[in-house]
Amino acid sequence: MICQGNVGCVNKGNLGENRMPVAVKAINLMQEGARKSFVAECETFKCRSLDDWSHQSNDQLEMGYLNLIQRLNLVTDLAFAIEYLHHHCQPPIVHADLTPNNVLLDHDVIAHVGDFGSFFPIARLVQFLKLLQVQLG
């Protein structure tokens, strides 16, 4: 298990012959609020990346423009997501590839963190940094 949430957990799995690592979310539908969470997860698949949103063509400019309040809300959404990954997942998780392509905006311009292909537990990061420090001495 990667982390435990209010209505389920996220497990690590492997997909296909090349054993590509994937995260699989299991929702306990008996848990209060699980159905609402499931619908919210499905809505996330309708999101567009911040990168796509910010590179709209001129005829779609009103969609690509984010006012100051929307920008502040976007940054706040991301801060809460990172805080959750670092302090409420067991083990804690570092995303390691938080780019505009991995920030998803829904139709209400609420930011969601996506693409966990480059995530890893913080404990593994600390071990790597200690090993690197010893090697560089």
From TrEMBL:
<dbReference type="InterPro" id="IPR008266">
    <property type="entry name" value="Tyr_kinase_AS"/>
</dbReference>
<dbReference type="Pfam" id="PF07714">
    <property type="entry name" value="PK_Tyr_Ser-Thr"/>
</dbReference>
<keyword id="KW-0472">Membrane</keyword>
<dbReference type="InterPro" id="IPR001245">
    <property type="entry name" value="Ser-Thr/Tyr_kinase_cat_dom"/>
</dbReference>
<dbReference type="InterPro" id="IPR051809">
    <property type="entry name" value="Plant_receptor-like_S/T_kinase"/>
</dbReference>
<feature type="domain" description="Protein kinase">
    <location>
        <begin position="1"/>
        <end position="137"/>
    </location>
</feature>
<dbReference type="GO" id="GO:0016020">
    <property type="term" value="C:membrane"/>
</dbReference>
<dbReference type="InterPro" id="IPR011009">
    <property type="entry name" value="Kinase-like_dom_sf"/>
</dbReference>
<dbReference type="GO" id="GO:0005524">
    <property type="term" value="F:ATP binding"/>
</dbReference>
<protein>
    <recommendedName>
        <fullName>Protein kinase domain-containing protein</fullName>
    </recommendedName>
</protein>
<dbReference type="GO" id="GO:0004672">
    <property type="term" value="F:protein kinase activity"/>
</dbReference>
<keyword id="KW-0433">Leucine-rich repeat</keyword>
<dbReference type="InterPro" id="IPR000719">
    <property type="entry name" value="Prot_kinase_dom"/>
</dbReference>
<keyword id="KW-0812">Transmembrane</keyword>
<keyword id="KW-0677">Repeat</keyword>
<keyword id="KW-1133">Transmembrane helix</keyword>
